[in-house]
Inverse folding.
């Protein structure tokens, strides 16, 4: 047991830190124009790719570096610490493709995914299929050598900036709901696809809804076998968690420092009650970090990601939301009168953390399953 | 970075788990009806009492990680022997003072010692400042250790428990607690070994925190396992109560809380011997603040899942709660430790 970097990990971290210091675009987080922000994120993806920092834990044969997920965690941690632009989230789409795709599909889709030439989104949830994802109703009807897709997807994060989508649709309505779903790799530039941003309570267009009207997908763009969609989706979401969590933790620690600063400015550090609240926020962040490190170790040692990811998700949502409560309590009127810019938006941005990627209640159901409690 | 137990540590966990499992309390009446001296002997024979004695190089035989592995097993079994008091806390003090022969006697199981804690149980008693003191986890111990100030720095002192102490009514039924019946007469203190360095004291405190955290993690995990097992067999309204989402979510929340405390504890245990003393101590405060924040809730949830039967004296549930309450308090409760963390974090820079 050792919580420290190995010499190899330490060397990688030191090089990365230097590289980030040299390459992070100055003032990137002050950009207001949306198109400019999108261009910056794409550019950052390419810059990272050229330096070999995309797909660290992917197999070498698919353009990765074949490193352990610990290196992904280091990348996430250092990016968070140094306030770099968001990392491209290619991991889960890549995992789905190199686990389930045909050789031809791999050759076609993986290189541009890695390089950032194509941006991807995930078309899973629907208006009537949120927590109960398997009840999704978007249909893909076979018509010769094409599928014809009709339906509506919700919470398609990045949908408005994406070129391609990993889409789940029902190909067989006559079998039990988990067995009638297939996965597709489909361009969102096809005729019949309409993307509309969804503005969340913070006022930001954080996600999107996507409408599919008679969209034709060639059969060879189906991923895996017909009916294999549910299994692919579960693999994908289980890899959504993990190393990336470490990046959120780095961001959490930076926010905590800001909150401590706010408390200091307002003269609250003399009062034990505020000191305890700030220390409690530190403890929550540490607990989350250490829990994620254990899960990462468990993955590195060869155990596939399992339902224990639900524990980290619940800890993360609680930490994030508690920290925003603390900021709100410290700021008082300033947060609600526009005098403390950004904090009210951050508060509302923290609310969906206990909803997306499986709501807190669903996570508890998953834990109950894991504890083998009766259905 | 790899935070998992090594194969050797995994084996130690199995050995400790077997001893604690066969010696563990099934119900409160076991406290008086069983032969706990035999348990102490099997711990001694397995070498588990010797983890903090020093090898030829002067290093502890077992690191904080090994200590936590065994302490968690003892907590899980609610084993009413002074593992923390004698084998960890007193032994470590003796070794830091260079009294290796005395430590060896404790490791053999032929003698036992406890520790004296201050009035609010927040730390080791320190003379002459501390008047009234408690002997904590002193079952079968003839003496207890504390600190006294001297011109050369703090020194370990031993105090006989034979007179001047009366039994205290401890919330925790599994650890013997004595209270001094008045201020300790300086003439009763016997100095042990060499003076301690400031670093010795920080490391000792980090070890104490990690060990007591591991104990309460064991208490929580085993309590929750019993409640979950009960939810799988108790039938009401014609169905297993564990099928109710209300029960499932209570158990899931308690599980998350206990696992979070366990994650923080593992790190604190590793930090004891691996990090600078100040960092090890911060890790210990963090773990203890987390454990103390959740231990009462987790064990209360367990009593709630057991319903009416879980409120009775004959049932094991309150024994978990009692040990959890005391573990949460000794060496600093949540409030006290949050303030210490704040002192490190909020330096105004």
């Amino acid at each position: 047991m050792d919580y420290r970097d190995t010499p190899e990990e330490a060397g990688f971290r030191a090089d990365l830190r230097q590289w980030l210091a040299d390459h992070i675009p100055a003032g990137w987080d002050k950009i207001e124009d949306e198109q400019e922000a999108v261009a910056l994120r794409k550019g950052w993806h390419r810059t990272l790719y050229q330096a070999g920092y995309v797909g660290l834990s992917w197999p070498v044969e698919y353009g990765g570096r074949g490193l352990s997920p610990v290196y992904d965690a280091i990348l996430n941690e250092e990016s968070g610490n140094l306030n770099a632009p968001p990392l491209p989230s290619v991991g889960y789409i890549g995992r789905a493709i190199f686990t389930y795709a045909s050789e031809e599909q791999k050759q076609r889709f993986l290189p541009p995914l890695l390089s950032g030439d194509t941006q991807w989104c995930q078309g899973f949830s629907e208006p009537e299929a949120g927590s109960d994802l398997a009840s999704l109703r978007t249909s893909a009807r076979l018509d010769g050598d094409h599928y014809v897709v009709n339906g509506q997807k919700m919470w398609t994060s990045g949908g408005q900036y994406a070129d391609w989508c990993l889409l789940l649709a029902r190909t067989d309505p006559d079998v039990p709901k988990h067995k009638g779903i297939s996965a597709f790799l489909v361009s969102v530039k096809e005729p019949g696809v309409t993307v509309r941003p969804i503005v969340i309570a913070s006022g930001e267009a954080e996600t999107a809804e996507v409408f599919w009207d008679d969209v034709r997908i060639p059969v060879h763009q189906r991923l895996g076998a017909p009916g294999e969609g549910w299994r692919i989706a579960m693999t994908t979401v289980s890899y959504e968690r993990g190393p990336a969590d470490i990046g959120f933790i780095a961001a959490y620690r930076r926010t905590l420092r800001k909150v401590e600063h706010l408390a200091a400015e307002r003269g609250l550090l003399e009062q034990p009650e505020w000191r305890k609240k700030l220390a409690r926020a530190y403890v929550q962040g540490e607990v989350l970090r250490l829990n994620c490190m254990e899960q990462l170790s468990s993955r590195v040692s060869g155990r596939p990601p399992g339902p224990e990811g639900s524990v980290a998700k619940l800890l993360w949502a609680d930490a994030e939301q508690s920290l925003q409560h603390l900021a709100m309590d410290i700021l008082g009127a300033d947060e609600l009168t526009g005098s403390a810019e950004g904090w009210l938006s951050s508060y509302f941005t923290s609310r969906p953390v206990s909803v997306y990627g499986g709501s807190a209640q669903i996570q508890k159901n998953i834990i109950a399953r894991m504890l083998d409690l009766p259905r | 970075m790899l935070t998992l137990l090594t194969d050797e540590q995994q084996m130690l966990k199995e050995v400790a788990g077997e001893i604690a499992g066969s010696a563990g309390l099934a119900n409160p009446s076991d406290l008086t009806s069983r032969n706990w001296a035999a348990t102490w002997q099997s711990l001694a024979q397995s070498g588990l009492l010797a983890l903090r004695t020093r090898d030829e190089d002067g290093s502890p035989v077992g690191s904080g990680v090994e200590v936590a592995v065994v302490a968690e097993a003892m907590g899980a079994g609610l084993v009413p022997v002074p593992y923390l008091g004698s084998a960890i806390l007193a032994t470590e003090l003796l070794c830091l003072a260079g009294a290796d022969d005395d430590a060896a006697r404790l490791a053999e199981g032929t003698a036992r010692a406890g520790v004296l804690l201050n009035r609010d149980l927040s730390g080791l008693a320190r003379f002459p400042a501390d008047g009234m003191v408690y002997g904590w986890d002193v079952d079968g111990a003839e003496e207890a250790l504390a600190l006294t100030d001297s011109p050369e720095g703090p020194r370990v002192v031993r105090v006989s428990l034979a007179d001047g102490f009366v039994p205290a009514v401890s919330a925790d039924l599994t650890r013997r607690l004595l209270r001094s019946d008045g201020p300790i007469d300086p003439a009763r203190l016997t100095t042990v070994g060499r003076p301690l360095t400031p670093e010795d004291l920080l490391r000792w405190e980090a070890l104490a925190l990690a060990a007591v955290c591991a104990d309460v993690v064991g208490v929580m995990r085993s309590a929750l396992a019993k409640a979950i097992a009960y939810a799988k067999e108790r039938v009401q309204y014609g169905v297993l109560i564990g099928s109710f989402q209300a029960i499932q979510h209570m158990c899931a929340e308690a599980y998350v809380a206990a696992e979070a405390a366990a994650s923080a504890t593992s790190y604190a245990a590793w930090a004891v011997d691996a990090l600078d003393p100040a960092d090890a101590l911060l890790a210990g405060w963090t773990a203890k603040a987390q454990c103390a924040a959740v231990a009462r809730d987790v064990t209360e949830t367990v009593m709630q899942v057991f319903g009416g039967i879980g409120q009775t004296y004959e049932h094991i549930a309150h024994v978990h709660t009692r040990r959890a309450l005391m573990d949460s308090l000794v060496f600093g409760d949540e409030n006290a430790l949050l303030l210490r963390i704040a002192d490190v974090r909020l330096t105004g820079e």
Observations:
- Chain B has a mean pLDDT of 96.
- The first helix of chain B runs from residue 7 to 23.
- Residues 198-345 of chain B form a domain with the Butyryl-CoA Dehydrogenase, subunit A; domain 3 fold (CATH 1.20.140.10).
- The two ends of chain B are 30 Å apart (CA to CA).
